[in-house]
Amino acid sequence: xxxxxxxxxxxxxxxGFHLITEEVESQMQELKEINSGILNVFIKHTSxxxxxxxxxxxxxxxxxxxxxxxxxxxxxxxxxxxxEGSDDMPAHIKASLLGSSLQIPVTNGKLNMGTxxxxxxxxxxxxxxxxxxxxxxxxx
Length: 140
Hints:
Blueprint: E1 2-10, E2 16-19, H1 21-27, E3 36-43, E4 48-54, H2 58-71, H3 88-98, E5 101-107, E6 110-111, E7 117-123, E8 131-139
């Protein structure tokens, strides 16, 4: 059994949903050494999230952003956590809805996702900056 863990830094992105599959794969070259295993992807932030969804049509990512903004609006009068800006508390809620980690099967040296699936970084802050992921790979 092999086990490897590394922390990677993603480039800063604008608010929205962004495909990061290729960035994750390129920074975890050791995937090629695993015949059967799991990649755990953990985001070290409370105002951005990760998920897996459609990787082909960019309007899906646009619709995600629109829906999340309707579902969790800014400037609600009941928000108490407001010192870091009007986008901060909604960003925390959105990140919790998506979650902070993914488990992806690895088969024959590749992520074993569906044809139309990709890893999304969901950046919920207007100026979130670069984001850190912990990648934990284990398998045979």
